[in-house]
Design brief:
alpha+beta, three-stranded antiparallel beta sheet, about 30% helix
Length: about 120
């Protein structure tokens, strides 16, 4: 019986037009790769199986970053604060100086990110 290959990451994905398969190169902890080619039907079956597995296992590592779909900015009714609310959470109240620093920091970081190439998510 062959030894098990323990995949740690996806090294490369590529669609082969000649064989009509998705080729996925997995890498183990030592950097060795093993490529698997799957048909569209197999990819769909794997997607369902992998989704069920991922949902049934406790996540490893730190929790993912929250990515709110919406936000709102306003001013306090009875206090001189800037209100920042994400989704339906309770709003954060910032005094004017904090709000200015936050605004500048957001613009600075957005400009840094906008100048970088988009990273590939694996």
């Amino acid at each position: 019986m062959a030894a098990k290959f323990i995949a740690e990451s996806i090294a490369r994905t590529q669609v082969s037009t000649e064989t009509r398969r998705l080729e996925i190169a997995f890498a183990d902890a030592e950097g060795r790769t093993h490529t698997v080619g799957v048909t569209a039907a197999m990819a769909q079956a794997l997607s369902a199986a992998l989704g069920e597995f991922a949902n049934s296992c406790p996540s490893e590592g730190p929790p993912p970053t929250k990515m709110p779909r919406e936000f709102a900015v306003g001013t306090g009714r009875y206090e001189q604060v800037v209100l920042v609310r994400f989704e339906d959470d309770i709003p954060y109240g910032l005094d004017a100086a904090q709000a200015k620093r936050l605004g500048r920091a957001l613009v600075d970081h957005a400009e840094i990110i906008a100048g970088e190439p988009e990273s590939l998510r694996q």
